[in-house]
Design a protein that fits this description.
Ferredoxin-like protein; iron-sulfur; 4 helices; two-stranded antiparallel ribbon; globular
Length: 96
């Protein structure tokens, strides 16, 4: 018997996101620009939470965050302020 898990996009579409009134990610734009962390965040985030704007700032769509921690692994110290969403908020994985 063959098991076809489907594409990553199909699997991620099954997740449910409960948005919090307060964003759980914020960024120090000046430090992100100076260290190059901003470009790394845009490049590695699997959920495309980070986007580089035309003025060089990094915008954040924290409601799409998968809470995987990839951004914390690539950002220089002090660039991100990241906390888990309030209880019951954030992503609920429907398929691993």
């Amino acid at each position: 018997m063959n098991f076809d898990p489907g594409s990553i996009n199909e699997r991620l579409a099954k997740n449910v996101f409960h948005t919090d009134d307060r964003p759980h990610i914020s960024i120090n734009q000046e430090l992100a620009r100076a260290t190059g962390s901003g470009k790394r965040l845009v490049a590695v985030c699997p959920a495309h939470v980070y986007r580089e704007e035309s003025n060089g700032d990094i915008s954040i769509e924290s409601a799409a965050c998968l809470e995987c921690g990839t951004c914390l692994a690539v950002a220089d110290p002090g660039v991100l302020h990241w906390v888990y969403p309030e209880g019951g908020m954030g992503v609920q994985f429907r398929e691993g």
